[in-house]
Write a structure and sequence with these properties.
The chain is an alpha/beta fold. The protein has helices at 2-12, 26-34, 69-78, 90-94, 125-138, and strands at 15-20, 47-48, 57-61, 64-65, 84-88, 104-106, 116-118. The chain starts with a helix and ends with a helix. Bound molecules: iron/sulfur cluster.
């Protein structure tokens, strides 16, 4: 019974944490747009969280750099299971324009498991919203 309630809360009101592991901030600006009153994603029960310990979904932007790798790993480990990862932007998917730079390791999936990819440069809030709802359907 408790497990059913936990599953229902994940599906009906997932809390998301965002993390930029080294991009240009373009995707983050679009991502922040998703949480403003124009798109008002909270009406669907999706709430932005600052702490990984309270998050269900990790939304990552940007390629992983040598500098940000340990932080990304630590954040992922701190999110309680079941956890899901959505990568937005071409940089987070493959390394994008930063690929082959001396300090870039590549896409997010070089470090942590990824459930869904949303390529784009940058991704529009509508596309991010669509990806989040599709990910919720998979939960
Ligand atoms: S995908 Fe484009 S907008 Fe997003 S972080 Fe990379 S360069 Fe910036």
């Amino acid at each position: 019974m408790i497990q059913k309630l936990i599953h229902l809360s994940h599906k009906k009101s997932p809390w998301v944490l965002t993390y930029n592991s080294g991009g240009c901030n373009g995707c983050d600006i679009e991502l922040l747009g998703l949480f403003n009153p124009r798109y008002d994603i909270e009406r669907f029960g999706i709430l932005q969280q600052a702490s990984p310990r309270h998050a269900d979904i990790l939304i990552c932007t940007g390629p992983v750099t040598k500098q940000t790798r340990p932080y990304l790993e630590r954040i992922y480990e701190q999110i309680p299971a079941p956890k899901h990862v959505l990568v937005i932007g071409s940089c987070g998917c493959t390394g994008g324009i930063f690929k082959n730079a001396y300090n870039v390791l590549g896409g997010i999936d070089q470090v942590i498991p990824v459930d869904m990819y949303l390529p784009g440069c940058p991704c529009r809030p509508e596309a991010i919203f669509n990806a989040v709802t599709q990910l919720i359907e998979q939960i």
